[in-house]
Automatic annotation (TrEMBL):
Cofactor(s) demanded: pyridoxal 5'-phosphate
Domain Orn/DAP/Arg decarboxylase 2 N-terminal: from-to ranges: 30-281
Gene Ontology molecular function, alphabetical: diaminopimelate decarboxylase activity
PANTHER family, A to Z: DIAMINOPIMELATE DECARBOXYLASE, GROUP IV DECARBOXYLASE
A matching Pfam family: Orn_Arg_deC_N
N6-(pyridoxal phosphate)lysine modifications at: K54
Orn/DAP/Arg decarboxylase 2 C-terminal domain sequence ranges: 282-379
Swiss-Prot/TrEMBL keywords: Lyase, Pyridoxal phosphate
Name of this protein: Diaminopimelate decarboxylase
Top-level division of the source organism's lineage: Bacteria
Length: 429
């Protein structure tokens, strides 16, 4: 029996998921810890890894990641507050939003939170703030768009010619202008790019990192000393959603970077990463109960309580974000072809639109009412997604740890049942 099978059996047999709590998210903290270790083992000591908070903004998960040695990358004021609540120090946080308000910028510079500048208008605001806080400990740099092209998923590609993110390096005379900007501002000590995301090849990501490394060298040479001391190479390492295999690995990415940008591995620069999905995704699952089943047009349909309110990306962009599912009996035993016939199945969610589907026309052992479905690789951008806060009931989240034979499951976010919500509502005629 696999660790995942033991986890779901434990959750069912201890009545964590039942008739009232019909969908839960589970994070495997031991596996999460191993993933962070894999990241650190793959790179030399001048690399420091931060976690993209948007990938899993649960305070308990972030606390664990902090204990495992990761910093925090935030992209909104809310994420900053969550990171601070999880115990991150100011100097372990980096703020990356492309829409920072003056208040956001003031907070960062006043308290020594690092940040990446998105555009020249933001630079003008920071120029004013640096007069007010000349001794800030914030490490500040530009986010650069190397404009090197798109990956397979256009909506998550951040280095296209017209990307909304960062300073367009290849437009006109922008490169020389940026070099002059750095020379005039000794407090600009970092350069950032985020070239990759799901659907991007490792070689494309490495090309973006090469661009900012070459730019840092050119800036330092032009100034006459090493003013740029940090390279923030972003995250975006793709995740394999079609099997249990972890691919690509952090080691594979490090090998590509080492070949393309060997200077990163010489200790000349501090290198920061901002991995999110690659850290969290494969260490979390969603478990939901099958409420009803039926046949329509020759297709078997299993209706569950996990859909667009939790699995938002998959429901709206199923070809870009496919997910694997596994069926389980009410007792927690995995359903196999030995127990029931394998038939074309749609696993549906509870929302009232036709696209609310976890998977379509998948060959699965026949699901029945009161069975359970495990949705794999959902530890990032799914059950911690903010859309879930508008769902009824709100999904409960649990952390699992311990040896396979002595699993410990602990609630880290309580779910409101329908009865809880109704009890809080105030009705008026």
């Amino acid at each position: 029996m696999t660790r995942k099978q033991k986890i779901i059996q434990c959750a069912i047999n201890t009545n964590i998921i039942d008739d009232n709590l019909t969908a839960i998210g589970i994070m495997d903290l031991d596996r999460l810890k191993q993933t962070v270790k894999d990241a650190y083992d793959a790179f030399p000591e001048n690399f420091y890894h931060t976690f993209a908070v948007k990938a899993n903004a649960l305070v308990s998960v972030l606390k664990s990641l902090r204990e495992y040695g990761m910093g925090a990358e935030v992209a909104s004021p809310g994420e900053l507050l969550i990171a601070l609540k999880a115990g991150y120090s100011h100097d372990s946080i980096i703020f990356d939003s492309p829409a920072k308000t003056m208040a956001d910028l003031r907070t960062c510079i006043k308290y020594g939170i690092s940040l990446n500048i998105d555009n020249l208008q933001e630079l003008a605001r920071i120029d004013a703030l640096m007069l007010e806080f000349p001794e800030t400990k914030s490490v500040i740099g530009f986010r650069v768009n190397p404009q090197i092209g798109s990956g397979k998923i256009s909506s998550t590609s951040t280095a296209t010619a017209t990307s909304k993110f960062g300073y367009a390096l290849a437009d006109g005379n922008n490169k020389q202008k940026l070099i002059e900007i750095y020379k005039a501002r000794p407090w600009l000590k970092s350069i950032h790019t985020h070239t990759g995301s799901q659907g991007c090849e490792l070689t494309l990501m490495a090309s973006g990192v090469y661009s900012i490394t070459a730019l840092a060298e050119e800036i330092n040479s032009y100034i006459g000393h090493q003013q740029v001391v940090r390279l923030d190479i972003g995250g975006g390492l793709p995740v394999n959603f079609i099997s249990e295999e972890v691919s690509p690995t952090f080691k594979e990415y490090a090998d590509v970077l080492s070949e393309k940008v060997p200077l990163l591995f010489t200790n000349k620069y501090q290198v920061k990463t901002e991995f999110g999905r690659a850290i969290a995704a494969k260490n979390g699952v969603i478990v939901t109960r099958v409420e009803y089943t039926k046949n329509s047009g020759g297709r078997h349909i299993a209706t569950t309580h996990a859909g667009a309110q939790i699995l938002t990306r998959t429901a709206f962009l199923p070809k870009s974000w496919p997910l694997r599912v596994t069926g389980f009996l009410p007792c927690g035993e995995e359903k196999t072809s030995i127990q029931s016939e394998v038939i074309p199945t749609d696993v549906a969610g509870p929302c009232c639109f036709a696209g609310d589907l976890i998977c379509v026309d998948q060959q699965l052992p026949k699901l029945e009412a009161n069975d359970y479905v495990m949705v794999h690789d959902t530890g990032g951008y799914y059950f911690s997604n903010h859309f879930d806060y508008n769902s009824l009931p709100r999904i409960g989240v649990y952390a699992v740890s311990g040896d396979d034979d002595a699993l410990i499951i602990k609630c880290i976010r309580k779910a409101d049942t329908v009865e809880d919500v109704l009890a809080k509502m105030e009705y008026r005629e």
